[in-house]
Design brief:
By secondary structure, the protein is α+β, with helices and mostly antiparallel strands. The chain is 33% helix and 27% strand. Helix 2 (28-48) crosses helix 5.
C-alpha cells in the first residue's frame, strides 16, 4: 500500500495544468473508473505488444464517461489545489477495483498488471549468457564449470540446454549447481544425472541474500576417473531479478512505466489556466 501511494504521487511530478476554463472537473469516483480502464488498456497493449498512439488509445475511455483528454488533464493538473482531496486515494480506489476483479477472474489476472510485476520485469536483466559451448577434450572441461560471483540480493534464474552425445566416455555423468556463502561454505546444492544422447534442458532458481557470494554450475562431474568428454551447451543464461521492494523503489525513482497514463499524455498538456 505504501508503495502504491508513493507511485501514485509520481503522477503529480509529470503533470501540467489543463487548458481552458470550459473544461469539466471530473468527480473522484469517475476518475477512479477512468484510471481503472487505463490500467487495463496499458496491460492489454503491453501484452499484445501493440504500437499505438499513446493519446488516441485513451480517448475512447474518456469519451465513454463523457469527457475529453483535456478534461482529464485539467482535472489531474488541478488536483493538488483541492485541500481535502488526495490523488493517491483515487489511484488506490482504481487498484482496489482491479484487485476485486482479479479475485473473480483469477485466470485473467495476468492482464491486470500489478506495479510489483511491472517493476520486477523492468529490472530483470541477463548477467551471464553463452549461446554455444562445445567440449571435446579433458583440457577444455573447465568451460563446463560456470561461476558467477559478486552476487547481489535477489533471484537468479539459471537455464541451459545440454547434450551428452555418444562420443562421451563418462558413464553416469552428473551435473551440479550451488551457492557459495561469504564464509566459503556451500549451500542450496542440487546434483542431477545428465541424460545421454538427447538434448535436455536444466533450469534452476536461486535466491541470494547479503550472505551469498557466488553461484556455480558444473556440468562435468564423472562418477569415476575423468575420460574423454563430448558435451555441448546451448543457450546458457543466468537472469537476475532484484528483490520486489528494491525493484518498485527503482521504478519509482526512474519514473518508468508506473504512471497511469503514458508519458505522451502528460507532454500534451500545457499550463494555460487553473481553477
Amino acid at each position: 500500500m505504501k508503495y502504491r501511494i508513493r507511485l501514485a504521487a509520481l503522477l503529480l511530478l509529470g503533470l501540467m495544468a489543463g487548458a481552458c476554463v470550459r473544461h469539466k472537473i471530473i468527480s473522484d469516483e469517475e476518475l477512479a473508473h477512468i484510471f481503472h480502464d487505463a490500467f487495463l488498456t496499458n496491460a492489454y497493449v503491453s501484452t499484445e505488444r501493440l504500437s499505438l498512439d499513446s493519446l488516441n488509445i485513451y480517448e475512447p475511455i474518456f469519451a465513454r464517461y463523457g469527457y475529453t483528454t483535456e478534461d482529464v488533464q485539467y482535472t489531474i493538473g488541478n488536483f493538488s489545489k483541492r485541500k481535502s482531496a488526495r490523488l493517491g486515494d483515487v489511484v488506490e480506489e482504481a487498484i482496489r477495483m482491479l484487485e476485486e476483479e482479479g479475485l473473480r477472474y483469477e485466470h485473467e489476472v495476468a492482464v491486470l498488471d500489478t506495479i510489483d510485476n511491472v517493476a520486477r520485469r523492468t529490472f530483470t536483466r541477463t548477467v551471464l549468457a553463452d549461446s554455444l559451448v562445445r567440449v571435446r577434450s579433458l583440457r577444455d572441461t573447465a568451460r563446463l564449470h560456470i561461476r558467477l560471483d559478486s552476487l547481489l540480493p535477489g533471484e537468479y534464474n539459471l537455464t541451459v540446454n545440454y547434450l551428452v552425445d555418444s562420443l562421451d566416455r563418462n558413464p553416469g555423468l552428473r551435473g551440479s549447481a550451488w551457492l557459495i556463502r561469504t564464509d566459503g561454505s556451500r549451500t542450496s546444492s542440487y546434483t542431477f544425472t545428465m541424460r545421454r544422447n538427447k538434448e535436455e534442458r536444466f533450469t534452476r532458481r536461486y535466491t541470494a541474500d547479503s550472505t551469498t557470494r557466488e553461484l556455480h554450475l558444473n556440468l562435468f562431474l564423472p562418477r569415476e576417473g575423468a575420460k574423454r568428454p563430448s558435451v555441448t551447451l546451448r543457450d546458457l543464461e543466468i537472469r537476475y531479478t532484484p528483490p520486489t521492494r528494491q525493484a518498485v523503489e527503482s521504478l519509482y525513482l526512474r519514473q518508468l512505466d508506473i504512471r497511469i497514463f503514458a508519458d505522451e499524455f502528460f507532454r500534451a498538456a500545457h499550463p494555460k489556466d487553473s481553477l
